[in-house]
Write a structure and sequence with these properties.
Helix content: 25-40%
Distance between the termini: 22 Å
CATH topology: Hypothetical Protein Ychn, Chain: A
Number of domains: 1
Radius of gyration: 14 Å
CATH superfamily: DsrEFH-like
Oligomer: single chain
Largest sheet: 5 strands, parallel
Number of helices: 4
Length: 125
């Protein structure tokens, strides 16, 4: 069984909050199984990395746990978050602070390297 998982957040968009929780559920579950997990935030998903942004988003009207809470749970299980610099630039976020859970920057090249590495499994949301 593979022990490394790279997750690409491409269509995970704060404007469609009902699709934002699942990637973090899966990341936290893998982390709880002692799998090394990296999440790559691209496109509009980088908006979740602005301080406070994900804490104001809920996957549904009946939900009491915010997307920010789900992100923190994943982080607590050792999941590392990487922000795409091109996406940050596209959304005017280059000079803005990011949440403390962000481990660094990583975009297309970093994710593709993981996808091509036989030790890593990949998921795309």
């Amino acid at each position: 069984m593979k022990q490394k998982l790279a997750i690409l957040l491409w269509a995970t968009d704060p404007a469609t909050a009902d699709r934002c929780a699942t990637p973090f559920f899966h990341a936290a579950a893998a982390g709880a199984m002692d799998v090394e997990v990296e999440m790559y935030f691209t496109a509009r998903s980088v908006l979740l990395l602005a301080p406070g942004a994900a804490s104001r988003i809920f996957a549904g009207q009946q939900q009491t746990t915010s997307i920010g809470d789900h992100m923190r749970q994943a982080s607590e299980h050792g999941v590392r978050f990487f922000a795409c610099q091109d996406a940050l630039t596209a959304h005017g976020m280059v000079a803005q602070p990011l949440i403390e859970d962000v481990s660094g920057y990583g975009g297309a090249t970093a994710f593709i390297a993981r996808a091509l590495d036989p030790e890593w499994a990949t998921l795309v949301y």
